[in-house]
Write a structure and sequence with these properties.
65% strand, mainly beta, Outer Surface Protein A, domain 3
Length: 107
């Protein structure tokens, strides 16, 4: 387990390094101790779902990766939890983009 710390002693990041590459779940924290991001890695590349949280604890975004490449649905929320942006990727290529429910990709 690899950990880094803020000056106040609070954990900043934690996760596993194997041969110098991130592996498995990595968590980043705000200095207050609440979770900032949760990311998953396989051999140093993002894999699966990742989450980012606002300082108030509400979800800020959720993303999905395959072998380090954006793939699937990405959702971005404001601090009140309202879905603002939704993007869909296929193997790194953006195929749809909605902002507040409006299709901006095909306009």
């Amino acid at each position: 387990m690899d950990r880094t710390y803020f000056e106040n002693g609070q954990i900043k990041t934690e996760g596993y390094l194997i041969s110098g590459k991130k592996q498995g779940k990595w968590i980043h924290y705000f200095e207050t101790g609440t979770i900032r991001t949760i990311q998953n890695f396989n051999n140093g590349k993002q894999e699966g779902r990742s989450f980012w949280y606002h300082p108030n604890g509400s979800i800020g975004w959720e993303e999905n990766y395959e072998n380090g490449i954006a793939h699937g649905t990405f959702r971005y929320y404001d601090e009140t939890g309202q879905l603002r942006i939704e993007k869909t990727y296929e193997k790194g290529k953006e195929v749809s983009y909605l902002f507040d429910g409006k299709d901006l990709k095909n306009n």
